[in-house]
Design a protein that fits this description.
Trna Endonuclease, Chain: A, domain 1; alpha/beta; binds zinc ion; single chain
Amino acid sequence: MDKRLEVLPDHVLILRDLTYEVNHTTFQIDTLLIFREKLYLLDVKNNDGDHYIEDGIWKTAQGTEIKNPQHQLLRCTSLLRKLLQIIGINLNICAHLIFVNLEFTLYQAPRTPEIIFPTQLNRFIEKLKTEPCNLGRTHQRIANQLLQNSLKVNRHQIQFTYQLDQMKKGILCSECYGFMRRYNQKRLICLKCKKIDLTTNRISSNIKEFKFLFPDKKITSKDIYNWCGGVATMDVIRRVLNQKYDLISQGRSSHYVEKSKPD
Ligand SMILES: [Zn+2]
């Protein structure tokens, strides 16, 4: 979508990835275009495959309910309107859902100009090109104010820095993230909620967690043993690793990699 918008006249101001908080509610805006008389709020969707609407509920071909994008757009628009009032900007908002994936189909699609389907995208862009966009200083001020009010950091984007040697080692409960200890030969128990789980299950999650947190680190049985905080024996850890990973030996050292083929 960003690429497609490049054809717009240079004067059009394009703001992206904005996050605001209004009335203790956080909302995000993909793309906001500032024209002379209105703001275009674009919610870009990458859904693919067949979808249908039943009693106002959006579903995938398999019948799984998805978040209603029209409701999301409505919510976003009304929060943006409130924000504009607060910072004293008086411009109309033109809100659109833009489905960009060519593989997306919506049966019983509502006939509304609010939704732009992939087959309509070209015409939509052409229409945008004709919007008056001779902007004045006030528009620049509007853009600045919208940027200034955007929360630089929201709780979904907080950056954490961490180092392996500074982290508390152990196996966490899948239910409450409490630490677990050995319960019997094959099971662990959570110290917090008392949930009992198979040791091999928890080790397997711990390996995934390790991979996720340290994508550049090679996986060795010793590292996983340490990561599990000594709660599981080296034997069990090796067994889990051998089940799911291939052992690569390089001289005296060896590490595990994801199996090349599923079993
Ligand atoms: Zn627990």
